[in-house]
Amino acid sequence: MQESGGRPITRRLVQPIWPAEQLPGVRALFGSSSGGEDYDEEASKGEAQTNGDGPAEFEIVMADAAGNKLAADNVK
């Protein structure tokens, strides 16, 4: 499209899409946020990593599009 002066008209709409009624979220319990002994700051560059000998534990949450936490059974 163009306006009457000939300049193009551009519009943009960003619409997030929630692909399911509920989705899992995963957070690492190791790395820079935990500061645990299994964290290797030099190697991680801001990413959650273990030094290879430490545990790799995670928190899992099930939530809907509004951010409400939901109960979940048999999460694999």
Fold and architecture overview:
This is Lipoprotein. Residues 29-54 are annotated as: Disordered. It comes from Pseudomonas syringae pv. actinidiae ICMP 19096. Keywords: Lipoprotein. The chain is mainly beta and 76 residues long. The protein has a domain at 22-70. It has one helix at 41-44; strands spanning 22-28, 58-64, 69-70. The chain has a three-stranded antiparallel β-sheet with strand order 1-2-3, with no helix packed on it. It is elongated and about 65 Å long.
Measured distance between first and last alpha carbons: 49 Å
Widest sheet, order of strands? 1-2-3
Question: What is the averaged pLDDT score?
Answer: 77
Helix count, per DSSP?
1
**What does the largest sheet look like?**
3 strands, antiparallel
Q: Topology as H/E string?
A: EHEE
Please mark out the parts with pLDDT under 50 across 5 or more consecutive residues, or reply none: none
Strand content: 15-25%
Structural class: mainly beta
Tell me how many strands there are.
3
Q: What sort of overall outline do the alpha carbons produce when their principal axes are compared?
A: elongated
Radius of gyration: 21 Å
Helix content: under 10%
